[in-house]
Structure formats: structure tokens, C-alpha cells
């Protein structure tokens, strides 16, 4: 069974453009968020306002909330019986994804974990990378939705595998981010402008998405500050903790993730504050977005 209607729960800086994309591609979209200011623009654009107590009326549920605890809060307010398919775009740990799948099964629902990478602009354009874990039939059922938001949809294994693949991506991304933040500080101590360092990296062996999208995390940190997102819910904290937890469960050593967990958040916050200075000179090459991707 496929569906052209979907309930989108969570309208942050990824959920909102994702819902807008679905509306623009002809989906019937119902939306919910704890912040009414996030709901109203989408209702004005044609979405229906979703009441969580009516969640059982929807066959396809798309969760774009910060993580497992937020999904649990939604489920506490939802009907006991949920017949349908939950597509969890939120970044979870593999064990949380498996546990959530089991909880949903007890309520009659099936689940795929489908975390994404790419940011808000790519969500709006339907150009995300989607990493999917789930049973073949469930993934096939979710595929029309996933292909509406993603240009690359990879079925990587059973439930939990999508989350594992996303955490692998986050580890590489945040390692690159930590390295570039250190690199500009080092070169800056010898009088090299930050914009020059970033330009040099883009044509050298140090080329990374982080460098080519320099300013992405400054914008994201500022957006989180404006919306009052707790530090623990920001991906460079939450996702790195999930990496460490997932590694510990399987006896995998991740010393780089350990180091990043103790230093990266402060480095991001410090650079984001410094970037507000009018003297700061950086290339105008970044894309505003959401590091959920």
C-alpha cells in the first residue's frame, strides 16, 4: 500500500522545509509541533493542523522531532492503537530505533528508521540523502515519501541500520568540522585570514563538505539559540553521544568521538559568536540548513 497523505510531527529547521516540500509535490500533509508559530505558516500553505490524539487516523506518520525522548512524548499523547507505518527521520541510536520499533509494534504500527543528511535547503528541494533501515515491504511502502524528500534513498539494512549509517556520517562530518575549526585558528595565529584558509582547503587535499559549506554551523547554532534549543538536543552533542553509546554496545573503540564530545560544542559556540563580528571575513558560500543532516 502507498499513501499520498502523511502526518508530519516536528516542524523545526528540517521538519518545516520537509513538510513544505511534500505540500509542493502534491501530498496531503497534516502537521504538528509544540510551537504554534511553526504550525501556522504550513496551515496557511495548505496543510491540515494535526491533533496528536487523532494520530491513529493516519496511515503514514513522519517523525522529525529531536530524538527518542521527543517521540516518546508524542506517543504518550497518542491513541493506544496505531495501525500504520512510522517513518522516523529523527537521528536515533540504533538501539533506540529498535526499541521504538518494538514499542510501535505493540500498538499495531510498523516502522522504518530513515535519518537524512543534507540540511534544510536540500530538504525543501527534495535533494536529501536518506539512509533507511527496515523490512523490505515497509521500505517499499515508505519509498514514495522518501523519494519525495530525497534524491538518494539507500536501504541499508533492518531497523536500526539506518541510524547506524547516519551516525557514521555524523562522526565523519563532526571530525571534519573539528579539524577545520582548529585549522583556521592555527593559521590565524600566523596572520592568515580565515577566508583564505577556507579557500585554500577547497582546492587542496583538505577539501571537505564542511569547508565548502563554511558558515553552515554558525547559522545553525544561531538558529538554535533563537529557538531556545537545549544544548543536549543539538546534533554535535546528541549525535556524538549516540555514536559513543552505539560503539560501547558493540565494543567498538571511538577515541575521536570521545575527544569531539568534550571539545566540539564549545568550539562551535565560540566560532558562531565570533562570526557575528562585522570584522569577520568569510566566503559567501554556505548554505543555511539543519545539521540533522
Which homologous superfamily in CATH is the superfamily of the largest domain?
A: NAD(P)-binding Rossmann-like Domain
Top-tier CATH class of the largest domain: Alpha Beta
Radius of gyration: 19 Å
Kindly state the mean pLDDT as a whole number? 93
Number of DSSP helices? Answer: 12
- Low-pLDDT ranges: 281-293
Query: How many structural domains does the protein architecture include?
Result: 2
Give the CA-CA distance, first to last residue.
28 Å
Largest sheet: 6 strands, parallel
Estimate the helix proportion, in percent. 40-55%
Order of helices and strands: EHEHEEHEHEEHEHEHHHHHH
Shape: globular
- What portion of residues belong to β-strands? 5-15%
| SS elements, strand count | 9
**Annotated CATH architecture of the largest domain:** 3-Layer(aba) Sandwich
Q: Strand order, biggest sheet? A: 3-2-1-4-5-6
> What class would the helix/strand composition place it in?
alpha/beta
Q: What is the CATH topology classification name of the largest domain?
A: Rossmann fold
State the assembly state of the protein chains: single chain
Amino acid at each position: 500500500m502507498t499513501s499520498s497523505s502523511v502526518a508530519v510531527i516536528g516542524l523545526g529547521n528540517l521538519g518545516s522545509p520537509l513538510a513544505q516540500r511534500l505540500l509542493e509535490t502534491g501530498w496531503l500533509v497534516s502537521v504538528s509541533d509544540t510551537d504554534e508559530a511553526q504550525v501556522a505558516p504550513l496551515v496557511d500553505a495548505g496543510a491540515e493542523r494535526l491533533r496528536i490524539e487523532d494520530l491513529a487516523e493516519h496511515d503514514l506518520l513522519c517523525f522529525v522531532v529531536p530524538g527518542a525522548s521527543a517521540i516518546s512524548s508524542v506517543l504518550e499523547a497518542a491513541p493506544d492503537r496505531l495501525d500504520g507505518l512510522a517513518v522516523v527521520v529523527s537521528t536515533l541510536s540504533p538501539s533506540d530505533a529498535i526499541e521504538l520499533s518494538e514499542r510501535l509494534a505493540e500498538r499495531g504500527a510498523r516502522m522504518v528508521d530513515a535519518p537524512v543528511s543534507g540540511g534544510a535547503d536540500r530538504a525543501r528541494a527534495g535533494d536529501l540523502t536518506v539512509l533507511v533501515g527496515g523490512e523490505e515491504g515497509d521500505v517499499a511502502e515508505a519509498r514514495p515519501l522518501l523519494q519525495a524528500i530525497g534524491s538518494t534513498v539507500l536501504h541499508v539494512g533492518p531497523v536500526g541500520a539506518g541510524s547506524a549509517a547516519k551516525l557514521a556520517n555524523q562522526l565523519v562530518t563532526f571530525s571534519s568540522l573539528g579539524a577545520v575549526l582548529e585549522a583556521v585558528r592555527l593559521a590565524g595565529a600566523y596572520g592568515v585570514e580565515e577566508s583564505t584558509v577556507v579557500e585554500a582547503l577547497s582546492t587542496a587535499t583538505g577539501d571537505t563538505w564542511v569547508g565548502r559549506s563554511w558558515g553552515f554551523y554558525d547559522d545553525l547554532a544561531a538558529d538554535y539559540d533563537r529557538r531556545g534549543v537545549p544544548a543536549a538536543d543539538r546534533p554535535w552533542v546528541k549525535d556524538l553521544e549516540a555514536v559513543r553509546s552505539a560503539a560501547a554496545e558493540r565494543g567498538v573503540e571511538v577515541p575521536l568521538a570521545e575527544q569531539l564530545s568534550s571539545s566540539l560544542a564549545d568550539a562551535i559556540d565560540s566560532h558562531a559568536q565570533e562570526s557575528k563580528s562585522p570584522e569577520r571575513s568569510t566566503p559567501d558560500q554556505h548554505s543555511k540548513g539543519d545539521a540533522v543532516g
